[in-house]
Amino acid sequence: MTRPGSNESVAISHPFYASPLISKVATPAPPSARASTAVAAAAAEINTPTEEEEAPLRPIPNIRLSNKIHVVGFDPHARFITHALSADPKLPPVQILTHSPIPLRSWGQEGRAINIHDSKGHPISTRNIVCPDYVNPRTWKLRAPPPILDNIIVSTTSRAVLPTLYALRDRIDRRTTVCLMEPGLGAVEKLNEELFQVPALRPNYVICHSTHKLSRHSYYKYSIRHIPGRLYLYAVPRDDEDEDIDRATSQILGSQHTQHMIDLLSAATELDAVSATWLQMLVHKLPDMMFESLADALSAVLDCRYDLVRSNRNAMSLWHELFDETVHIISSLPEFQNHRKKFRFLHERRFAAMLRVRLENQGREYSKWISEVRRGREPPIQFTNGYFVRRAQEVGVNHETNSLVMSMVEAKVESRRKMHQIPFNLMEDYDD
């Protein structure tokens, strides 16, 4: 098997860990146990054990976990996490990876530090950071083989997640833990389908949801405004095996990696990071995802401000159809069936009203999706409406309205590309 975009052959069986997965060596039984051994031997003559029972136990190796963290991206969350982790003297310096040389120049001009301000612009703290490492995918192959990246936090635009990790694919394997700051869901499935197609070689994943409010402060690239929130982290369980590692061992090893990432983030008090279950992650993410799948999707389709969507009768009719269909999809999911109380808020009138009020509060603002579409770039609709469509296909329920909206947005993106005569392979993937 080969990695996508690579000419190198990759074996499924791979000895990743220094401690070999060897069988336990049998030790002589003590004299007091000889009687019970004789009884067991007699019983063995009657009930011959199967090959599975004869197989010796395979001990779990003690793996070495690195504290080195690399942050991919340069949005406010990426900078805030870097700032928070830099406060721990026990951690190695956090390394930011950037695909643009601009942050390198700003780093020297702005004091080589990340500055945090409160919501009114008053300075809170300043911490020095290591100069960002410039990752140029065109010259990456010319370097010597780089070491494996142990802990990666990805916080960048949705469309840049896949090409960003594609550029780093030679430094990622099952020893790597990737923490995804993507607001929507479905990025893990997308990465596995298009980039990490060999299950045994896939990295470990941690899905993150942040309630921290962050924005840019003035024109400074390394200064941000911050309203405290919380970081919810969900460790995605592994589901693979190969010749060296059985499924159960693979899951245990994977949990060691993901728990280590969660521990590293939890140690930074400013992040207020906590571990969450899958149900808790859904409860936190679904409201924002539903708002984007409604407000941003319709704004992109109509190419208008939020207030014009709210005042358009036909647009709001489509809004209600989309809302009802999405609620029905979520209600049909397997994880919903035994936990209806947790998702009861979806069916309450006040939740539907809250989304409409949130739309009204946007006022005359434009959705960020509009600027993406106008430049011929696909907005993160694959991780909002696209996620609901994929889950609807899994459980066999209707997803016609979500699919329609997705098709309309994708058609507009394609038409803008043709209008500007920009080939898809020359579109700018990275946005630091």
TrEMBL record:
Coiled-coil boundaries: none
Cited Pfam families: ApbA_C
Domain Ketopantoate reductase C-terminal: 289-412
Alphabetized GO MF terms: 2-dehydropantoate 2-reductase activity; NADP binding
UniProt-listed SUPFAM superfamilies: 6-phosphogluconate dehydrogenase C-terminal domain-like
Keywords, ordered alphabetically: NADP, Oxidoreductase
Domain of life of the native organism: Eukaryota
PANTHER family with a match to the protein in the record: 2-DEHYDROPANTOATE 2-REDUCTASE, 2-DEHYDROPANTOATE 2-REDUCTASE-RELATED
Protein name per Swiss-Prot or TrEMBL: Ketopantoate reductase C-terminal domain-containing protein
Species in which this protein is naturally found: Daldinia eschscholtzii
